[in-house]
């Protein structure tokens, strides 16, 4: 009899445990559903903040949607300090001493090669329309774009420690940050802008969470948590854009990528005034190995009167400005200028990614094969464009990505840079 009671009691306990287990599963399932719903709500709120009402919409051949948004409704004006800001439609002053970009087809490369073909670089969405006067083109952010980010909060932002430290060629820096560079730089003076002509490639990316870019950096402050940076150039970033297209981009931060700043117009800050160029949109055509070479010119300078930092693309497009109040150190001037390439190496245990920088070829291959920056200049305190003095170079691992400088009459100060990443000398 006792055995019967014992077995019944054990059976009841078993039933209770099963019930608790089922209830636990239901609870977990509900929590998971609530978590998914909460994330969807967060994503939708973020999309509503970013995607402003459009006056006109243009579908690009590459799948992008370009919204023509009234200039006064752009994301910049979500910033509390910009609520009553009067848009400055043109800079008060342009830097003196600009190279004539219209001469580009007549310039000779630093080494004798077949004549380069020069054609205006356009953005792909131009094939299907243009934005009306009084609007700016904004690449629409889609739900899948935000979901690729580690969190809604981190969408559109670089990871920390994305700045090369030329004075500290510490190999531990590579492993700590995952970012690698091949750059030329100047420091030790006050700088009020920088310019470069960069040829455009479509480097191969190994992992979706890696990127490859070529840009200029306008830097102020220390390399600690108060670093100010303005950046502009071209990039390939599957994580950010969902494809391998080469795209025009900008970036800014006033606290070393921690809480401030973003790519393009993905947060409030940069004020765009141009109706023809979309930040983050694809650039076409791109350079081909041993074939036609295409380049873009980028100028960033500080307006001596208002103090804002302006950006110009090519010879014709003044895109807009970063208001000076966004920054601490850059409210005055920059202390360092850098030009060059950057990649992310996400391979573990000391292995190296095969993500390419620039053309994916080393500098010694030269024109038509390697990637270049030419006519690099800085803006001085008198708002004049000058050749950089004391140009230095830096790369964490020269057998993976390298840089070589030179100068001549047509190209001014220039350098070749880049590489394939993983190779027999870069395992």
- Name the helicity range: 10-25%
Name the average pLDDT: 88
How many domains, in number, for the residues? 1
Structural class: alpha+beta
N-to-C CA distance: 74 Å
Order of helices and strands: HEEEEHHEEEEHEEEEEEEEEEEEE
Low-confidence stretches at least 5 residues in length (pLDDT < 50)?
100-117, 168-176
Number of DSSP strands? 21
Number of helices in the DSSP assignment: 4
Content of β-strand: 25-35%
Q: What's the overall geometry? A: globular
Taking all Cα atoms into account, the compactness measure Rg is 25 Å
| Biggest sheet architecture | 9 strands, antiparallel
Keywords: Signal
InterPro entries: Glutamic_endopeptidase (IPR053168), Neprosin (IPR004314), Neprosin_propep (IPR025521)
Protein name: Neprosin PEP catalytic domain-containing protein
């Amino acid at each position: 009899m006792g055995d019967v009671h014992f077995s019944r009691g054990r059976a009841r306990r078993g039933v209770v445990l099963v019930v608790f287990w089922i209830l636990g599963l239901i609870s977990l399932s509900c929590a998971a559903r609530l978590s998914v719903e909460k994330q969807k709500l967060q994503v939708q709120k973020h999309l509503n903040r970013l995607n402003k009402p459009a006056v006109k919409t243009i579908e690009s051949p590459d799948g992008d949607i370009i919204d023509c948004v009234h200039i006064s409704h752009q994301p910049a004006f979500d910033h509390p300090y910009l609520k009553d800001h009067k848009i400055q439609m043109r800079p008060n002053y342009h830097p003196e001493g600009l190279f004539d970009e219209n001469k580009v087809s007549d310039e000779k490369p630093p080494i004798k090669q077949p004549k380069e073909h020069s054609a205006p670089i356009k953005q792909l969405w131009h094939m299907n329309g243009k934005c009306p006067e009084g609007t700016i083109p904004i690449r629409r952010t889609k739900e899948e774009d935000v979901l690729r980010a580690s969190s809604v909060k981190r969408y559109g932002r670089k990871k920390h420690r994305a700045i090369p430290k030329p004075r500290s060629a510490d190999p531990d820096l590579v492993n700590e940050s995952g970012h690698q560079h091949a750059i030329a730089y100047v420091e030790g003076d006050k700088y009020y802008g920088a310019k470069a002509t960069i040829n455009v490639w479509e480097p191969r990316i190994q992992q979706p969470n890696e990127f490859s870019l070529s840009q200029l950096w306008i830097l102020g402050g220390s390399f600690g948590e108060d670093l100010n940076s303005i950046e502009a150039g071209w990039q390939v970033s599957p994580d950010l854009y969902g494809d391998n297209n080469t795209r025009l981009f900008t970036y800014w931060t006033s606290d070393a990528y921690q809480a401030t700043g973003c790519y393009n117009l993905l947060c409030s800050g940069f004020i765009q005034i141009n109706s023809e160029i979309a930040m983050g949109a694809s650039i076409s055509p791109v350079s081909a190995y041993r074939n036609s070479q295409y380049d873009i010119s980028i100028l960033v300078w500080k307006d001596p009167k208002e103090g804002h930092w302006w950006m110009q693309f090519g010879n014709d497009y003044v895109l807009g400005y970063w208001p000076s109040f966004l920054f601490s150190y850059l409210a005055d001037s920059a202390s360092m200028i850098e030009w060059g390439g950057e990649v992310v190496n996400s391979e573990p245990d000391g292995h190296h990614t095969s993500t390419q920088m620039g053309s994916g070829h080393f500098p010694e291959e030269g024109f038509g094969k390697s990637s270049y920056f030419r006519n690099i200049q800085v803006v001085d305190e008198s708002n004049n464009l000058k050749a950089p003095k004391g140009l230095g170079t830096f790369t964490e691992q020269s057998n993976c990505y390298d840089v070589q400088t030179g100068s001549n009459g047509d190209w001014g100060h220039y350098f070749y840079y880049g590489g394939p990443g993983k190779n027999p000398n870069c395992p």
